[in-house]
Amino acid sequence: MDDDELNSRLKPLRERIDALDAQLIALLNQRAAVALEVGEVKKHFNAPVFRPEREQQVIARLQQMSGGPLADAHISAIWREIMAASRALEQNIRVGFLGPAGTYSEQAMHEYFGQSIEGLACASIDEVFRSVEAGAAEFGVVPIENSTEGAVSRTLDLLLETQLLIGGELALPIHHNLLTASGDLTGITRVCAHPQALAQCQRWLATHAPHLERQAVSSNAEGARLAAQDPSIAAIAGDRAATQYGLQIAYALIQDDPHNRTRFVMIGKEPSGPSGYDKTSLIVSVANEPGAMFKLLEPLARHGVSMTRFESRPARVGTWEYYFYIDLEGHRDDPAVSAALVELDQKAALLKILGSYPRAR
């Protein structure tokens, strides 16, 4: 097929696409105008701009309506950005994340909230919580557990202490690369990364780079920043950090588990309403007596509430006492979950509800 024939076949198709694009931009602007009206109503009633349960419902409805060829993931990505742009017309939303730029936390923030937000890079998970508590950011994004290394202990500890609520979650595939300035290991003596990333790649490092000293730093992006400054340092980080700091991928996908994922939660001051596909997270403690845990969990089974996560953390007071972090299916306003929580509150030494929020799909 020569170029003339190719162009003759493509021309009418491109004209159809151009016509459809003209319709789409007109409709998107109409949608944005309605979103501005929604914003005015919210201002009048002092209602929050971002409602994660509403956005989840919109995306789920569109996915059900779609007959293809767009996949559910494509629809989710497209409408996340459309809704983010509409939110930005109503209010500039600032979100705290574990920085510097180029971290998986930053990637999770944009995948959840879209690109039309202002990110606030924080030096630590503690600082993410403080930024939201102090009002420097409306929301924060923090890692809570990894499929390989388990819970992020500092996040669990801070959730116990804070008055902030979990408002949403996102499970992010983690693809670790070994990054260097040169693109190989010549002259490299040290690898810098977050402790969890070092642990998630320990078998690969032991096999392919046993001579490298391993140094834990505050984030993978911080390791990438150091590698960009010092040619003797390698970093473990994702594609975003490689681009951000001008590094080359010496080895790609070095995580020990090819299905490695990290779950992030979104924290804020406002509770999320029911979306129809929710999760409730809570912390409980029980008296140190025989059968105490059975008595605590029995109401869940009796009311038909499924428990999807059970994590224990030592209490910092007393001897051999623990807090239990539990995830339940359903929203705290659902009748079965509500009834079970009432009984839990009566039987537990402590019950703290961390939030009910849309589950990651």
Query: Tell me, what's the shape?
Result: globular
Tally the helices. 12
* CATH superfamily placement of the domain at 94-174 and 261-268: Periplasmic binding protein-like II
- Number of DSSP strand runs: 15
Q: Work out the strand percent.
A: 25-35%
- The CATH architecture term of the domain at 94-174 and 261-268 is 3-Layer(aba) Sandwich
The main pleated sheet reads as: 6 strands, mixed
Q: Could you name the CATH class of the domain at 94-174 and 261-268?
A: Alpha Beta
Global structural class: alpha/beta
Per CATH, what is the topology of the domain at 94-174 and 261-268?
D-Maltodextrin-Binding Protein, domain 2
Q: Are there runs of 5+ residues with pLDDT below 50, and where?
A: none
Report how far apart the termini are.
44 Å
Rounded radius of gyration (Å): 24 Å
Mean pLDDT: 92
- The percent range for helix content is 40-55%
H/E element order: HHHEHEHEEHEEEHHEHEHEEEHEEHE
Main location: cytoplasm
Site (Essential for prephenate dehydratase activity): 262
Domain Prephenate dehydratase: 94-269
Pfam families: ACT, CM_2, PDT
